[in-house]
Write a structure and sequence with these properties.
With 242 residues, this protein is α/β, with parallel strands linked by helices. The protein contains 7 helices and 10 strands. It has one domain: P-loop containing nucleotide triphosphate hydrolases (Rossmann fold), CATH 3.40.50. It has a 6-stranded mixed β-sheet with strand order 6-7-8-3-9-10, with helices on both faces. It has a 4-stranded antiparallel β-sheet with strand order 2-1-4-5, covered by helices on one side. It is globular, with a radius of gyration of 18 Å. Bound molecules: adenosine-5'-triphosphate (ATP). Residues 19-20, 22, 24, 42, 44-50, 204 line the site of adenosine-5'-triphosphate (ATP). Adenosine-5'-triphosphate binds next to strand 2 and helix 1. One of its GO terms (cellular component) is plasma membrane.
């Protein structure tokens, strides 16, 4: 194993992974610098979720290496990967997955409460994040009383309360209208930039990828050049990294 450069918070080489015999990643390498917002841009089924799950230590790739802060992740036992996910990573999916019986602040504070932080302190931190994401006034409402975009911003707050090194956002705005999409993305990216949090953002939408500092294309589990739908008629494909 060759150690990655020091300034890469995430560094992965030659990742290959199959789900039950179906290849999802067929040789992907990626590096993400500290504080960078990287978009992984590709069509449905390209392997974006699988790549994020490998980088986040949720699954161990069949082949290849994943390093976080110059330490290998792919060789860690499950308990250590779980601790890494809990302490250093945040995750936002396309669906907010809030607990319906909890209020917005309780949902946002959940990672803190689960790791044993005090109630008052957890509530304060959750409220700060809800305020930063412009939904402070929803703190005492339950998910059923929130709009879809508000629920997704609570999920963003939940991913940020532990001050993670990296947030993985898997199609975080896929279910939102265009105006909400842009608002949620702006709040996520500006919060990440102001707190020096690295973001890996999977999307099939070039407009969403435009919020990132850099985009890498992924097609059929390989680095590729996805073409935005509106440009399919024109001749020039995107470069693999823009
Ligand atoms: N848990 C799983 N079991 C079986 N096959 C899977 C599983 N997860 C992903 N796949 C398959 O692996 C391939 C890559 O899927 P993946 O979800 O990583 O791609 P994606 O780019 O995130 O696509 P989408 O936007 O549709 O989620 C697809 O063919 C998918 O059907």
């Amino acid at each position: 194993m060759v150690a990655p450069p020091d300034n890469d918070v995430l560094w992965a080489r030659a990742l290959r992974h199959s789900h039950g015999g179906d290849p999802a990643l067929a040789g992907v390498s990626v590096n993400v610098r500290a504080g960078e917002i990287l978009a992984v841009l590709g069509p449905r089924g390209a392997g974006k979720t699988t790549l994020l799950r490998c980088l986040a230590g949720q699954i161990v790739p069949d082949e290849g290496e994943v390093w976080f802060n110059s330490a290998p992740v792919h060789t860690l036992p499950e308990a250590s990967r779980e601790a890494l996910r809990r302490d250093r990573f945040g995750w936002i999916g396309g669906d907010a997955r809030l607990l319906p019986e909890l209020t917005a602040w309780e949902n946002a504070a959940l990672p803190l409460l689960l790791r044993g932080d005090g109630h008052r302190r957890s509530r304060g931190t959750a409220q700060e994040w809800l305020d930063r994401l412009d939904i402070g006034d929803t703190a005492r409402r339950r998910p059923a009383d929130l709009s879809r975009a508000q629920r997704q911003r609570v999920a963003v707050a939940r991913s940020l309360v532990t001050a993670p090194a990296v947030v993985f956002a898997d199609e975080p705005t896929a279910a939102l209208h265009r105006a909400d999409r842009s608002h949620v993305l702006r709040t996520l990216t500006s919060a990440a930039r102001s707190h020096d949090i690295t973001v890996v953002l999977a999307t099939s939408d070039p407009e969403v990828a435009g919020h990132a500092d850099r985009a890498m294309g992924l097609v059929d589990g390989r680095p590729g050049a996805p073409m935005p739908a509106q440009d399919r008629e024109s001749a020039s494909p995107w470069p693999a990294s823009v």
